[in-house]
Design a protein that fits this description.
The longest helix is centred in the N-terminal third of the chain and has 51 residues, at 14-64. A hairpin with a 5-residue loop joins strand 7 (135-137) and strand 8. Helices cover 29% and strands 31% of the residues. The protein has one helix spanning 14-64, and strands at residues 67-72, 78-85, 88-91, 99-101, 107-112, 115-118, 135-137, 143-144, 147-152, 157-163, 169-174. The strands form two sheets. Strands 1, 2, 3, 4, 7 and 8 form a six-stranded antiparallel β-sheet that branches. A five-stranded antiparallel β-sheet has the order 6-5-9-10-11, with helices on one face. It has one helix and eleven strands. The radius of gyration is 26 Å and the shape is elongated. It is α+β, with helices and mostly antiparallel strands.
Length: 175
């Protein structure tokens, strides 16, 4: 019968096993933190895009001397824009800040006298909302309402977008 050398049958020591487990735990924690940061970046990017879009609509209303509006599309994932003329809302033409695509799972709400609520929905495909939009951009520079919230996830993460006294839309994360 052949006998193996004493080092050939040796197992792992407790220290070696603990080192491997520590490396796995550190790697898992890094991946988890990276994923959380990715989610925060997604929300921040959407808040930044929305504040820029709102700013452009507000500026265009002043420059064009027209009443502009914004509402949610049928699918809830696109924000539409239009102008009010001759008693009805008309969609903006392509390239004129006509819509903003929301990322999957992102919700946009506005604050009015009753609290936070969803934007008015588009009523039929290819046409503007038949009822007045609840977000109105006046040609003299006012916007009603002036405060919005972008949120996602459970528990919800959120950012608010507000218009300051100088007419600039800016956003900040809600703690």
């Amino acid at each position: 019968m052949t006998q193996l050398p004493p080092t050939a049958c040796r197992g792992f020591t407790l220290v070696e096993i603990m080192v491997v487990l520590a490396i796995i735990a550190i790697t898992a924690a890094s991946v988890g933190l990276g994923f959380e940061r990715l989610q925060q970046d997604r929300l921040e990017k959407q808040a930044s895009e929305l504040s820029s879009w709102l700013q452009a609509l507000s500026d265009n209303a002043v420059l064009d001397g027209a009443v502009y509006g914004a509402w949610s599309g049928d699918d809830g994932q696109r924000l539409m824009a239009g102008y009010f003329l001759e008693g009805r809302w008309w969609l903006l033409a392509e390239g004129d800040h006509e819509s903003l695509r929301l990322q999957q799972g992102i919700a946009v709400q506005m604050e009015d006298e009753t609290g936070w609520r969803e934007l008015a929905k588009q009523t039929r495909k290819g046409a503007a909302a038949s009822e007045p939009s609840r977000v109105i951009f006046q040609p003299f520079g006012t916007v009603t309402p002036g405060r919005f919230r972008v949120s996602e996830g459970e528990p919800p993460r959120a950012a608010t977008i507000e218009r300051d006294d100088d007419g600039i839309f800016s956003w900040q994360r809600v703690p």
